[in-house]
Amino acid sequence: MDRKVKCERVILSPDEKKLLREIARHPHKRCSQSEARALHTLDLVKPDTEGEDDFHQPIPKDTYCVSDFYWVYREYRRSLFMDRLLTAFWLPMLVSFITSLLTTAPQWIPLLLQPK
């Protein structure tokens, strides 16, 4: 699956965002499995493990850290924010400045062409 498509499918509740932020700031944060289930399902966090059992399956602990996909998702969100900031703030400001300049420039031409 394409990483962009996978990032676009991530929709988090405010509580999940808060928990993800806490886990990112404090790796190996202790939390219950039910709290981190949604984040683990979306592959944003992974449980810490301590060895393997007899069937070579990892033995999970009750601590979690961010996964590799979290960093991809974080960069995607940052890029999306910067794009929205550009289109919502800087672009209208630039258009306004250019429009103002073009509407007032004809008034300056006679002043600039007057002999001194």
Q: Compute the CA-based radius of gyration.
A: 26 Å
Largest sheet: 3 strands, antiparallel
Q: What is the structural class?
A: alpha+beta
**Based on DSSP secondary structure assignment, what is the total number of beta strands?**
3
Overall average residue pLDDT:
88
Q: For the record, give the distance between the C-alpha atoms at the N and C termini, rounded to a whole number.
A: 71 Å
Q: What is the helical fraction, as a range of percent? A: 55-70%
Query: Given the structure, what is the number of helices?
Result: 4
> What percentage of amino acids are in beta strands?
15-25%
The gross shape turns out to be: rod-shaped
Throw out a few tags for this protein.
4 helices, 116 residues, alpha+beta, three-stranded antiparallel sheet
Model description:
- The protein is an alpha+beta fold and 116 residues long.
- It has helices spanning 3-8, 14-25, 33-41, 68-113, and strands spanning 29-30, 45-52, 58-66.
- The chain has a 3-stranded antiparallel beta sheet with strand order 1-3-2.
- Strand 2 and strand 3 (58-66) form a beta hairpin.
- The longest helix has 46 residues, at 68-113.
- The protein is rod-shaped.
- The mean pLDDT is 88.
